[in-house]
Specification:
The complex is a heterotetramer, with 2 copies of chain A (about 400 residues) and 2 copies of chain C (about 140 residues). By secondary structure, chain A is α/β, with parallel strands linked by helices. Chain A has 2 domains: about 130 residues, Aspartate Aminotransferase, domain 1, CATH 3.90.1150.10; about 250 residues, Aspartate Aminotransferase, domain 2 (3-Layer(aba) Sandwich), CATH 3.40.640.10. A 7-stranded mixed β-sheet of chain A has the order 4-10-9-8-7-5-6, with helices on both faces. Chain A has a 4-stranded antiparallel β-sheet with strand order 13-14-17-16, with helices on one face. In chain A, strands 1-2 form a two-stranded antiparallel sheet. The longest helix of chain A is centred in the N-terminal third of the chain and has 21 residues. Chain A is globular. The two termini of chain A are about 35 Å apart. Chain C has about 140 residues and is mostly helical. Chain C has one domain: Sufe protein. Chain: A, CATH 3.90.1010.10. Chain C has a two-stranded antiparallel sheet with strand order 1-2. The two termini of chain C are about 25 Å apart. The relative contact order of chain C is 0.18. At the B-D interface, helix 3 of B face loops of D. Bound molecules: pyridoxal-5'-phosphate (2 copies). One pyridoxal-5'-phosphate sits at the interface of chains B and A.
Chain lengths: ~400, ~400, ~140, ~140
Amino acid sequence: MNDFPIDLIRKDFPILDQLIYGQPLAYLDNGATTQKPVRMIDAVNKIHREQNSSVHRSVNYMSEKMTEAYEQARQTVQKFIGAPESSQVIFTSGTTGSINLVAFSMGEAVLEPGDEVILSTMEHHSNIVPWQMACERYGASLKIIPITDEGDLDMDAYRNLFNKNTRMVSVTHVSNVLGTINPVKEIVRIAHSHGVPVLLDGAQAIQHEPVDVVDLDCDFYAFSGHKIYGPTGIGVLYGKQEWLDRMPPYQGGGDMIDRVTFEKTTYNISPFKFEAGTTNFIGAIGLAESINYLTGIGMDKIAGYENYLRDYATQKLSSISQLRMYGTSVNKAAIFSFVLNGIHPYDTGMIIDKYGVAVRTGTHCAMPLMQRFGIEGTLRASLCFYNTTDEVDRLYDALNKVIEMLA
Amino acid sequence: MNDFPIDLIRKDFPILDQLIYGQPLAYLDNGATTQKPVRMIDAVNKIHREQNSSVHRSVNYMSEKMTEAYEQARQTVQKFIGAPESSQVIFTSGTTGSINLVAFSMGEAVLEPGDEVILSTMEHHSNIVPWQMACERYGASLKIIPITDEGDLDMDAYRNLFNKNTRMVSVTHVSNVLGTINPVKEIVRIAHSHGVPVLLDGAQAIQHEPVDVVDLDCDFYAFSGHKIYGPTGIGVLYGKQEWLDRMPPYQGGGDMIDRVTFEKTTYNISPFKFEAGTTNFIGAIGLAESINYLTGIGMDKIAGYENYLRDYATQKLSSISQLRMYGTSVNKAAIFSFVLNGIHPYDTGMIIDKYGVAVRTGTHCAMPLMQRFGIEGTLRASLCFYNTTDEVDRLYDALNKVIEMLA
Amino acid sequence: MKISEIQQEVIEEFAGLGEWMERYNYLIDLGKNLPMIDQAYRNDEYLIRGCQSRVWLNAELREGLVHYTADSDAIITKGIAALMVRVFTDHSPDEILNADMSFIDEIGLKEHLSPTRSNGMVSMINQMRYYAMAYKSKLEAK
Amino acid sequence: MKISEIQQEVIEEFAGLGEWMERYNYLIDLGKNLPMIDQAYRNDEYLIRGCQSRVWLNAELREGLVHYTADSDAIITKGIAALMVRVFTDHSPDEILNADMSFIDEIGLKEHLSPTRSNGMVSMINQMRYYAMAYKSKLEAK
Ligand SMILES: Cc1ncc(COP(=O)(O)O)c(C=O)c1O
Ligand SMILES: Cc1ncc(COP(=O)(O)O)c(C=O)c1O
């Protein structure tokens, strides 16, 4: 991968160049949150210093400019995910906000007692709890797609979960624990053959490979700004127009209405119907800058380099005999969850932290998946395109130190 | 007000120093959104460049530091509003997010068919629509406190709205259109005498005067970061512990849970129960910096100077005979809504914009209030502590130009 | 006159105007002279969504050409509406749908076309086009 | 020995240790030697909320003094638990409640006391104090 300009790219992320406990930082916790390119940092800074003004609401020059930039950001996202119309791109507070919106509003629109919602064993809590809450409200229930020991969805079982009461499928595009890249196009195809809409949780996918919502044919796609090198507090929900039209609003407030009286309120059209109150417009513009940065490099190039890193790390980590890997699908992103035999992941994490290697330990907000494997938690190293094989080596060395100390 | 260091203060807001159509900017649209002090801008910039990492979730050094800063921000807000415990300070996406949370969760906790919620005629849509939606879900209804021609709440009418079905009162602390500072302590006292909890919408109050939630004795207090010189996409909800304990969660996701299985999920304690998913932690820390900046100046000093500006502007604007002011309460913040006789506010706004005077025109997300006064909209100038009497003069001159052109 | 010729005329008129004050005064005059919409159409049905000032628009098919009338309660908006009516009225649906919109930019009114909701010009132009489309298909159905 | 004296002892022991590796090794040794909690208490009822590693804590009143036992499934956490038990066990509720906590800072374990939820030390110390409070009121009720 000599053609990937990794040295230049690392310079775009000022945070990477620092010492932790005297060791150079190896930031391998990208599944939790990603670092920010200068381009996005400077854009936010510039808005704060020179441009900030309310959007959609005032007639003054600054407000017009800010609104333009905000709607331009929407179009940037639209193009990035291949959405037919910018009105199908809703800015939310994050993946969790996006999924809660759909679970609430689709709940109101379609769920009735006895209905069923299909999720999978590998979902993040953000794609479980909103559906549990909606099901409880409407007397519906969850059906769960089981997974194989390798961490693949059991597609036969999935096919058999459908019946006349199935109203919704909501599954993750890429597992935040196992790294599995799910066959989402096939998942959508099957669901549609039963007339059932599909939400894809793209929190761990959108930053790793080109995504085209029309090609996937999904009904909803959700992701978070902070996991795609953008600001915190901003997220995206894509939806098919027919559903956005049918769904009642989720939150009430300014901008989402057409007319308000105390007797009756009529609602604005999408996307505004779903963007109540002052949105995180600076966050949205920051997110668009991050996306522009990524498309400047090329998502295919990024995917290529990350696959190279994934193969390198897979080979390196599997050479540690005491390491038990969870998630060994052949379709996998550069996310590695594992446990060192007989050593608590928390001990491992604390020790490798002292070597400057930043990872995450615990259940990764996926307790049902932990139960599936009968474990309390794992250590997770999640890589992205600013990481290097050198950092993988440092992880490898640090793990061997842990084994020395504790085994 | 020679003791208020206005020249120094204006230097803290780099955006103020610019030309609009060749005229120096007079930013009088602070009710829509406020500008940002360097201290907060630099803090956000520094996090993006040097410190960003996920909060609450990972064991590594950066994540510990980030979590510390986030929880420190919560304590800063706690102290600022006088909340007894930091667990009573919930970070949301904004005032709209805060009120939707309460309307949903209190709706689930207390609303039943036939119940009533008291609002006022001067509420912002963000404090109307969420309650309408909740009332519709539970078969409850709204009761509205009327206002006088001056724009004061009719307190006798308020007292008479209570009956055994009243479950909730939700009113604004300061009107975003009329500027009226409501007698919120009295409002709370009366509601409590009927055993009814009160939410105060502090979106237009928290940035203008010292607020102490214990002294007010309110059950909930809501405000937005972007209106108190902080980032977009962040807001605060304060709640009394007893309610926070009784209320079910609003959104489902990571961090708000204790344990998740597909059969049953148990929830975390407040504030985490109400902070689903990755929060806008960078926004929260930015907000805390803005608050630290304000307390450095002193909220009483700010209130004093803003009252001086209010008096100056009141006198100046009332000398324009063609100007009809809406909101003439003796308890009033520096917010001015008015119409020039026979001239559409939109025309007025467009023309004064060309003189560099930035205001807002329209219904200000308060259509029921517009209906009360039988108007389509107003022009609103909303001042704050970085504004000057000079800028008020420029507004005055620009309005006279409009009258020349259009009357 | 073709739409493109009227546009050229408008561009030349505006070229003779000085800074914004003169342009606004010109629009205000246009607004004052706009033959008001028939009172029958000055109601919610003909109201254009998304304007801060209210804009009413009607269109009729007269001998194969689309005839527009418009009104607004704000005078500058009314002036802009008058300008749009002048450019597009009494032309065939096809000519309207194929018209180049860059003249708006050239006369310095682009800010009025930003996709903000406080400003209804985009909605007005869209609505004019919708009418043209509707009449086009009506004509073709014959 | 008084709590403050034990704390002093611990501070001196840690002062003799080098960088983090030695401290962690020391804690690991402490953890290995912690007399494990009675199996009867190693269940959810005695589990401390908010730890990423599981920590179990029990306390009994023995002749007016609070006797703590603890356990964890992570060895470093267990070492810290052992340290806390050593400092606080077998003292009166009052002495425990009045104890100075700054020794934790002095031995370089402050990071383990940050208010994060992945780290349960704060919860553990709080839980130890709750037990002391409970036994204090029990003693006073007599
Ligand atoms: C009184 C009042 N309440 C609520 C809001 C809504 O605040 P936000 O849009 O920041 O959620 C506003 C501001 O727009 C307001 O002025
Ligand atoms: C697969 C998946 N879904 C949802 C989420 C929730 O995202 P956020 O916390 O940004 O709302 C995450 C990340 O935490 C995730 O990895």
